[in-house]
Design goal:
- There is one protein chain.
- By secondary structure, the chain is α/β, with parallel strands linked by helices.
- Helices cover 44% and strands 16% of the residues.
- Strand 1, helix 2 and strand 2 form a beta-alpha-beta unit.
Length: 456
């Protein structure tokens, strides 16, 4: 209630001077893109920013520091980055509720300050989640400044909060109420899947446009020579990629002025993650344990595996402690942090991608799969409600529902590798389907779906 009273009081102060202020300082085609998280780890919102700049918009990119945003953003004169000061580290003795209240007050003040001191925007594009405190603050700013309030629904904030809190927790209920109320106030809504669009409309009477994630131009297939050069670069930092001969890697070798795949190379699988509750990496570890057992027991002829897991997140230390206890002889897991320019290259080098994303709402699609598909990499993905909008079983990849199924898929894919006829057939089939997927890129899809909402 006190928040509403404060907003009303501020409105009484701002509205009389609003017309003059807007006339002097508001520019046409000036959009703010807000991420309440690490800007460099928000690929979809970065793609929005780049597309706006390509279409002649001035863009204010607002969020938290951490990983560097894409070079195309950092060096574009039409894009200005505004970093929010991170909330202060508080004593762990504080209750969760009190900690959350203090953090929210801090975020409210700092976000309001940044919005008020920067040039006025014609539109604010807001990522959800989170909904608190961004929804009410951005909505009020748009009312005062006569700007358009636009939401990009990546997931539901309240379902993500419910992963660590219970569904009946006060904060979960509050987040849901805020999403329903302020979501209905937005002039435009975008969402990441057709199932999400239907859910918003049926449950909350919110109409949204489906803006599918599509790969940026950086995510594409590369030649064998490009793979070799990248792996040589990677081997200088990670010994596991070094080959036994000079100018070779564990996967590739240079013979008679030409690059060849090593005949005795290991299998190469890759997964990327934010190390959060909505990805159960114990499923992959259990599948890899079964794969290791199959080699040790000589059940089938399988190669050694190198498994690369990229990303940062809160549960990384937990899973690393489990990985470090493994005494595998035939499987090696490394968890490198790659520069944004190198991530597409390592995807293009792999034999197979693994996705463990489950979705707290069952309505969002994993962007990591989009990136892998953009590089022509077949994917085995954990099955959930709307995954079929992206991964089509036995057409462009495979799905699994538990660690046993994943282990069976891995053994089928890599048995007698690299001379397995079935694996070659599946690989060619999947990659053939992915060539069609690669033709539809982010910016082309964005201009056909989203651009008209910002030109009004």
């Amino acid at each position: 209630m006190w928040v509403i009273c404060l907003l009303c009081l501020l409105a009484l102060v701002f509205f009389p001077i609003r017309k003059l202020y807007l006339k002097l300082y508001k520019e046409h085609k000036h959009v703010s893109v807000l991420v309440f998280g690490d800007l460099g780890r928000s690929p979809r919102m970065q793609y929005h920013v780049i597309s706006f700049a390509k279409e002649g918009f001035k863009v204010d990119f607002i969020g938290y520091p951490g990983s560097l945003p894409l070079k195309e953003i950092r060096e574009n004169p039409c894009i200005r980055i505004y970093y929010l000061p991170p909330p202060p580290e508080l004593d762990n003795k504080l209750s969760f509720f009190l900690h959350y209240v203090i953090k929210t007050l801090w975020q409210t003040i700092t976000l309001s300050w940044v919005l008020l001191r920067k040039p006025i925007s014609t539109h604010i594009l807001l990522q959800n989640p989170p909904a608190i405190p961004t929804f009410p603050i951005c909505w009020f700013y748009c009312i005062v400044m006569n700007s358009q309030f636009v939401i990009d629904w990546h997931n539901y904030a309240h379902t993500l909060m419910a992963l660590s809190l219970k569904n009946d927790h006060l904060l979960v209920k509050l987040a849901k109420v805020i999403e329903i109320y302020f979501g209905s106030k937005a002039q435009s809504n975008f969402c990441v899947s057709r199932a999400f669009k239907e859910d918003l409309e049926v449950k909350w009477q919110i109409k949204a446009e489906v803006l599918y994630d599509r790969p940026a131009n950086e995510f594409h297939s590369i030649s064998l020579l490009e793979k070799h050069m990248f792996l040589l670069k990677l081997s200088k930092k990670y010994n596991i990629f070094k080959g036994s001969k000079e100018n070779s890697t564990i996967f590739t070798e240079y013979i008679l002025n030409d690059v060849h795949l090593a005949s005795d190379r290991p299998g190469f699988i890759i997964s990327s993650t934010s190390w959060t509750e909505d990805e159960d990496f114990s499923m992959l570890l259990n599948a890899l344990q079964e794969y290791e057992n199959a080699i040790v027991q000589d059940i089938c002829h399988l190669p050694d595996l190198i498994c690369v897991i990229t990303g940062k997140g809160p549960l990384k230390e937990f899973y690393m402690s489990i990985i470090n206890l493994k005494k595998w002889k035939h499987i090696t897991i490394i968890t490198p942090w790659l520069e944004s320019e190198d991530y597409p290259k390592i995807l293009a080098c792999a034999d197979l991608g693994i996705c463990l994303h489950t979705s707290s709402s069952g309505l969002d699609l994993p962007m990591k799969v989009v990136d892998m598909f953009g590089c022509g990499l077949p994917v085995y993905a954990y099955n959930f409600k709307c995954l079929s909008e992206l991964v089509k079983h036995n057409e462009n990849g495979m799905i699994f529902s538990n660690d046993k199924e994943l282990a069976a898929h891995l053994k089928l894919w890599f048995e007698d590798f690299p001379n397995n006829g079935l694996q070659r057939t599946l690989n060619e089939k999947f990659r053939g389907k992915l060539r069609n997927f690669q033709e539809n890129r982010w910016h082309g899809n964005w201009t056909s779906v989203a651009l008209s909402h910002f030109n009004e």
